[in-house]
């Protein structure tokens, strides 16, 4: 994502930082579930026992990590959009369509989060538990999943406020930096930066050796 978004407005800068922490936490959950499943498979193969509940816990981890990654993916404009005609439109019209897409995503996420709250509330009131050996109280994984959706809504609201202000004032570049389709140049620059980091890391390893 370009510096226009992360540097120009403090709320979005903080949102980006917190979303990065959330996506790292979600990644850690995913890795932990992979390790648990690997251990379970090896233990069953060579020692004749299993930990029990590995598949259940991994499904919870997948759902939670997915919801926690949504905000960061949106801030990075990593969501997929069809841009066959978009690239040929005038800049102002493209910026308006970017804003409309952000509004549509916000409406969808609001409804999704509202119904997710109903799910968590029902599990809490009814004291629902998973029909497994672990008998996990369902409000725990559902609540963590719900937190990710709530954070996504908060981030979308911040993005919408900033994008709306920029659209009204005619700041097209800021609108594109917040919710526009990533250009080929931006993707190339990001890949180049990633390559530079890898080269730097290799040089440090050689120096340490």
Structural features, described:
78% of the residues lie in helices and 0% in strands. It has helices spanning 3-8, 10-46, 54-75, 91-125, 139-168, 172-179, 184-208. α2 runs antiparallel to α5, α3 (54-75) runs parallel beside α5 (139-168) and α4 runs parallel beside α6. The mean pLDDT is 86.
List its traits:
209 residues, 78% helix, mainly alpha
Continuous helix count: 7
The biggest sheet amounts to:
none
N- to C-terminal separation? 35 Å
Q: What is the residue-averaged pLDDT?
A: 86
Low-confidence stretches: none
What is the CA-based Rg, rounded? 21 Å
| Principal-axes shape call | flat
What percent of residues adopt helix (DSSP H or I)? over 70%
Helix-strand makeup class: mainly alpha
Strand fraction:
under 5%
Assembly state (oligomeric)? single chain
The number of strands is: 0
Could you state the order of secondary-structure elements as H and E? HHHHHHH
Summarize the structure.
The chain has 209 residues and is mainly α. The chain has helices at 3-8, 10-46, 54-75, 91-125, 139-168, 172-179, 184-208.
SSE map:
Elements (H helix, E strand, L loop, with lengths): L2 H6 L1 H37 L7 H22 L15 H35 L13 H30 L3 H8 L4 H25 L1
Helix pairs in contact: 2-3, 2-5, 3-5, 4-5, 4-6, 5-6
